[in-house]
Amino acid sequence: MARRSEHSLEELKTLVLDAAETIIIEEGFSGLKVRKIAREIGYTVGSIYMVFANMADLIMHINARTLDAIAAKLEQVQDSSAEQSIETLAMTYLSYASQNVNRWRKTFEYRLLEDDEIPDWYQEKVDNVFTQVEARFAELAPELSEYHRKRAARALWCGVHGICVLYLTGKQEKAGIKDIEEMIVLLVRNF
Question: What are the C-alpha distances in Å from 79 to residues 74, 133, 137, 177?
Answer without folding.
Answer: 11, 13, 14, 22
